[in-house]
Design a protein that fits this description.
The protein is of the alpha/beta class. It is about 25% helix and about 15% strand. The chain is globular, with a radius of gyration of 22 Å.
Amino acid sequence: MKKMGRRANDLVDGRGGLASLALICVFVSGSVFAADQPNIVLIVADDLGWNDVGFHGSNQIPTPNIDALAYNGIILNSHYVQSTCTPSRTALLTGKYPMRLGMQGYPLLPAEKRAVPEGKLLPEYFKDLGYSTHLIGKWHLGYSSWNETPTFRGFDHHFGYYNGFISYYDYLSTWTFNDKEYTGFDLRKDGVPAFEEVGKYVTDAFTEHAVKTIEENDGTKPLFLMVAHTATHAGNVGKLLEAPQETINKFKHVEDSNRRTYAAMVSKLDDSVGTIVEALANKNMLSNSIVVFLSDNGAATVAPAYANWGSNYPLRGVKQTLFEGGIRGAAFIYSPLLVQSGRVSTDLMHITDWLPTLYSAAGGDIGLLDPDLDGIDQWSSLVYDLPSPRNDILINIDEKTRNAGLRFYNWKLIVGTSLNGTYNDYYGHLVMGDIEPRSYDTASVFDSPAGRSVRKASYTPLTEVEYEAVRRAATLTCLEPKAKKNPCDPASGAVCLYDIPSDPCEENDLAKFFPSVVRRMKRALVDYRKGLVPQADADIDIEVAQPKLFRYTWNPWVNCADSSCQIPA
């Protein structure tokens, strides 16, 4: 079955249907006024596993707020991202495949003179449409000079950090270069170090700032708010995982102590989502808002560095691989503006699609976007449950590792390997054990802050019984244990071909049975390869960028001769 859908009732149904019809007409007519433009909240989790949200079938970590939004929106079960942080954020904010920008490789390092190239980013397009634009949390797209930082790339305000991760209480980021450690503070408000925030759990700090941003919105401009959480990325060596002890204590049923702390980190992330949605409802903004939730890549369950004990089960692979566990991210969209909601979509969607899709939702003219975008406008497909215009996704081409992947309709092709093939056979079973089994609590989902807020804002909110039906549709199952399998390890030099809808766990290689499909997809990769911009070699300026030169903060350093270098007025 392509989709599991719940068809909406007649628009004029006595439950706000006329208002719904009026809102829809605004978008269809193309006449969008500032008061009618939807507020857009984009929540990005970091390294969150497929199996770490309740709506995908796991009972281990309750995520009632996330689940309530997902069930009442559209669960995107074929939402693809890049396999690491910087490439995914590049794709999200540019609408382009990272390999077209030279951003397809490893994530950015501190003191590295590399950044997302010049060109219009998503927040700049929204400013053109009259939006106020805010980034809370992670940037990770370059900061060697001030003009590479968020407030110079389209965001009116930024409260967050520049590097790939920070510790959860002290906001420090420690990196090793040439066997020497460098530690710096990395939390800022519009470029100014926010030392006064130290001691707050970072997920709470970001949530408080998001709520304040919503409460201070005066309605003269629609709001674009991107909350790029630290959770659930691992922190510095020695304290990879951090969460409040009272939250950790709620997960005594989780056998592994590291997984237990990770579960608490996910729970705090879920609390954040509920608090933000409740703030939108209290401000009477939720009924005209679009909330998108996604993970930037799969969990780094047992990665060589910065493991977080997240679970991508039952998917194969981890962060940094091109298997589904690394690049098929947990995602959904919620909005009362969606006519056909309360369903699971299996249509292909890529992280690049959000730029044109949300721009279209905001009333923008798609013809004004960069014609070289790889993202595809899916707004009408989402609103009305129409067939998706996308039938293929370039997963990645990395010319340094000689690793590439492509989705084409139901097919997926992988050429070459990543991480030296170390985790090619990893399926995530190591974190599944519980001291005692748990059942799924639909009542807590229904009564969560997000669940209550949805019932106030939505015209046709789902019931608890309907939650279960959507959850079953969103839960993946793999081949039967006794089913015949044709294993494939791309590290051996083999080209691997999978029929993903019938084999989401990539257990049954079909390359030898469909050689014509393999040839066609390899030709497509060759065509994509023609547009590749080579990755720059790492250029680490640690001697002039080291934190001790800037009051022990990670700071832009180009054209900054000493510690007096502050953000320009």
